[in-house]
Amino acid sequence: MTSSISHHALTPADAETMEQLRAIFAGNPKLTLEPASRSAFDGIMSQAPAPDGVSFEQGAVGGVPGWWARPDAATADSVILYLHGGGYVIGSAAAYRNFVGHLARRAGVVAFIADYALAPERPFPGAVDDVRALLDGLAATGFRRIAVAGDSAGGGLALASVRAGAAQAHRIVGIVALSPWIDMLLSGETMVTRAEADPLLSRESLAGAAEAYLVQTGRDDDRLPTLDADYPTMPQVLIHTGDAEVLLSDTLEFAARAELAGLDHEVHVWDGMTHVFPSSFAMLQAGAEALENIGAFLAERLSPPAGKRVLVLGATGGTGRAIVRRLKDLGHVPVALVRSPEKATGLDAIIVQGDARDPAALDKAMAGVDAVISALGTPISPFRKVTLLSTATEAVIAAMTRHGVDRLVAITGIGAGNSRGHAGFLFNWIIMPLLLRKVYADKDRQEAVIRKSGFDWVIVRPSVLNDKPGRGAVQALIDPTRFNGGTIARSDVADFVVDQIESDAFVGKTPLLTW
């Protein structure tokens, strides 16, 4: 896990360039975040040189207008959603085209630069509503991997989209924030300590923008950027910021809290650099280096895996571990949702902590997934009703629907449903009724939920499993310590189940598969 702050020294060449830029800044008043500044701000941002091999076209996503940046030979199914800066008051997609085009070219994917709602014409929650519509629209268009990037207010808006639930509903695989404005209370110490060093922004200008954007809305609204974010629900975050800007504290405090929460994040602080310096990549070595780093981050997050990304539920069990090993052997990328990381020791998979019945945990684990394998188990109970399998499966199917995943392979276990007749008299009529009848009743409900899902599903019903199939069915069944043993090896089941990820041979078959 990446969780460090990298500090970058000011180079002599950049020191000279910044001295010249500061001389220019000194002759002009600081930027005002009000509609009258829109033309001047767009003029500055549009000075970025146009990228080679990238075409631009106007368009709309989810009803929100903007510009597409389309590199030649872009990776399919992946997209960058870019949210421009400007304090929620100024800025435009057209002005950011060239800058974002360079990001898109380096990442090798298309980008959509959004003209989201600006104040005072459309104050809060206009921008938030537009981002939700944008993410809905990108998902509906068929994009399976989405990275959200933004600068200044757009960077804060990108982070807020996760807190507001967008990450749980869409395939956001990464967030990039440049000099993000996260603390709407403007309480960071660098609002004071960097006031003289920052030639662009001030606490006063940001306070005016906040007032125009929020109007009567309190700054503790859950949909706003905040340092009290729900970090465990976030995908990987990359931040670049300058050391000479009033918003520096926002990044440093975010990094400190992300570290404590265990969020995979990467923060770069550049000495001598001012607000959103990567946009000056043509003039500053620091800007060019930051741009390359951002492009590499986006390319890594948005590139399709060599194999399929497969969520495995019940991965810490014997069969689940065999499934994970088989996925790895075939070049797939297993993701394991586990309640206890300690139980996942030695499991060669991407580990996501959480419960299979928790929508937030499922959404985090489901990001970018191509298929789901369920090897869920449940404790035996002859006394109380068992519901874990069916309720978890309902939650899994709801999450798959949100993320556009349509392949589900489920092991519904030892002797379930129509396969009960394959285990022999002792198992079916004595052991199972006494110990497993409530489990099997829930397995029946689980299968009914799957059949109604409308997905491409395969239900696998191995009669009984055993790591040592050579013992023989009768010997395994009469041995109380091996009552769930039998003649089917877990590795054989794992091989068959994993094969169903890419095969349609048994999709939706009835009667369902048994051994």
From TrEMBL:
<dbReference type="InterPro" id="IPR029058">
    <property type="entry name" value="AB_hydrolase_fold"/>
</dbReference>
<feature type="active site">
    <location>
        <position position="152"/>
    </location>
</feature>
<dbReference type="Pfam" id="PF13460">
    <property type="entry name" value="NAD_binding_10"/>
</dbReference>
<dbReference type="InterPro" id="IPR050300">
    <property type="entry name" value="GDXG_lipolytic_enzyme"/>
</dbReference>
<dbReference type="InterPro" id="IPR033140">
    <property type="entry name" value="Lipase_GDXG_put_SER_AS"/>
</dbReference>
<feature type="domain" description="Alpha/beta hydrolase fold-3">
    <location>
        <begin position="80"/>
        <end position="278"/>
    </location>
</feature>
<dbReference type="Pfam" id="PF07859">
    <property type="entry name" value="Abhydrolase_3"/>
</dbReference>
<dbReference type="InterPro" id="IPR013094">
    <property type="entry name" value="AB_hydrolase_3"/>
</dbReference>
<dbReference type="InterPro" id="IPR016040">
    <property type="entry name" value="NAD(P)-bd_dom"/>
</dbReference>
<comment type="similarity">
    <text>Belongs to the 'GDXG' lipolytic enzyme family.</text>
</comment>
<dbReference type="InterPro" id="IPR002168">
    <property type="entry name" value="Lipase_GDXG_HIS_AS"/>
</dbReference>
<keyword id="KW-0378">Hydrolase</keyword>
<dbReference type="InterPro" id="IPR036291">
    <property type="entry name" value="NAD(P)-bd_dom_sf"/>
</dbReference>
<feature type="domain" description="NAD(P)-binding">
    <location>
        <begin position="314"/>
        <end position="503"/>
    </location>
</feature>
<protein>
    <submittedName>
        <fullName>NAD(P)H-binding protein</fullName>
    </submittedName>
</protein>
